[in-house]
Amino acid sequence: MNKKIFLVIGMAILSVTQLWAASFYVDGIYYNILSNSSDVEVAYGGYNSYSGNIVIPETVEYNGQKYNVIGIGTTAFYQCTGLTSVTIPNSVTTIEYSAFYNCSSLTSISIPNSVTTIASNAFEYCKSLSDVKLSDNLQEIGESVFFNCDNLPTTGGIRYADTYLVEVMDNTMSSYMIKSGTKYIGERSFLNRNNMVSIDIPNSVTYIGSSAFRGCPGLTSVTIQSSVTSIGSSAFYGCDGLTSVTIP
Predict the structure, then answer these.
(1) Element holding 62 (H helix, E strand)
(2) E strand or H helix at 18
(3) Model confidence over 141-177: pLDDT tens digits?
(4) How many CA atoms lie within 13 A of 82 on its CB side?
């Protein structure tokens, strides 16, 4: 049994756990009450429990108590293939692991500036996703956040990344600059970017994940800042044009 099958089984078990853990349900949305009893996060409600257009409120009332909606929980919208759009309020600060995994009909997402953390695989396999607006205040983004989002634009002028924050420097997508303040370049972040020629890594980056630049044959030189303390396996595998690497 391979790693992917184990992941699917594990996510299925986790999804069932999330369903039973939901604290309450209001206006089509499930919620979990967090350790601070006045805060909640959007919770998983079952397979395809969310569809169409979902508007998450900043606050929600249940049994006479008012709660602040501060997060989108682990697997909250997991495999909700009928979900087409989500409005995230400015009260949300965290989008958890696999929150929108395989939401295959989701075409666009706007993440408000209140969000500081997006966990791993949050939008993985959202294959219809073509428009992403990221929070300017992101401090931490996990691995493979936008992995296998095949419909994301591949031409310049759009701020997004496969996994992390990137500012496109020209319209040929050959020159990339990672946004200052980014801490991690995660697994498969720039996998198979055949036309990548240069990458500017800021001194805020501390970790470069496995296969981060794998299969970028046009990349000729890389300068790794002294802030980097770890480089994962196969990070530059298949970078056949690479002639110069500066490692602190």
Answers:
(1) strand 59-62
(2) helix 3-21
(3) 777 787 778 776 543 322 344 334 444 333 345 777 7
(4) 7
